[in-house]
Amino acid sequence: MHADDPARLLTLVELKTALLERVWELGQRQLQLIAAGDYGDLLKLLGVKQRVLAGLRDVEQGLAPFRQQDPEQRHWNSSVERAQCQRQMTRCEELLALILHQEQQSETQMIQHREETAAQLLQLQHTAEIHGAYDSQDWTAATAAQLDLSSEG
Questions:
Q1: What does the pLDDT look like over 1-36, one tens digit per residue?
Q2: How large is the C-alpha radius of gyration of the chain?
Q3: How far is CA 144 from CA 40, 76, 139, 140, 147, in A?
Q4: N or C end of the chain: which has fewer CB within 10 A?
Q5: Are 24 and 99 in contact (CB under 8 A)?
Q6: Pairwise CA distance, residues 119 & 125, whole Å
Q7: What is the pLDDT of residues 55-89, one digit of tens each?
Q8: Contact 6/85 with Cβ under 8 angstroms?
Q9: Among 3.10.180, 1.20.58, 1.10.10, 1.10.3210, what is the CATH number of 6-123?
């Protein structure tokens, strides 16, 4: 198949749509894992997502020659194929917008978790400092509070 083959274009666009749908599904799961604080599974999911994105990059490379063509000059086998390709491209654009929104949500959630974790660590540090101060104060107070109850005389 050549770059001027509309059937190849349709196949690539359908594959792109499927890959974008998979990225969107993985993004939904990513949001759930972030919300749950499950970073082990999140890292595994991001590995899977990276492989899907690599496949998407390959499809984009396959689509590159078609971007240089005038769409009106393509010789489709039928108007049905052309309409199907247009629908798939529209779906791709919709999915890209959804994925972008997901990524923004993920980033926001991760920032919130980071800030919450930093606040918790700061609280733990303050608690440890307070305990340390009390421990030190108890020792000093106990030493200073010893009374000499012996009598002279």
A1: 455 689 999 999 999 999 999 999 999 999 999 999
A2: 31
A3: 52, 97, 9, 6, 8
A4: C
A5: yes
A6: 10
A7: 999 999 999 999 988 888 888 989 999 999 999 99
A8: yes
A9: 1.20.58
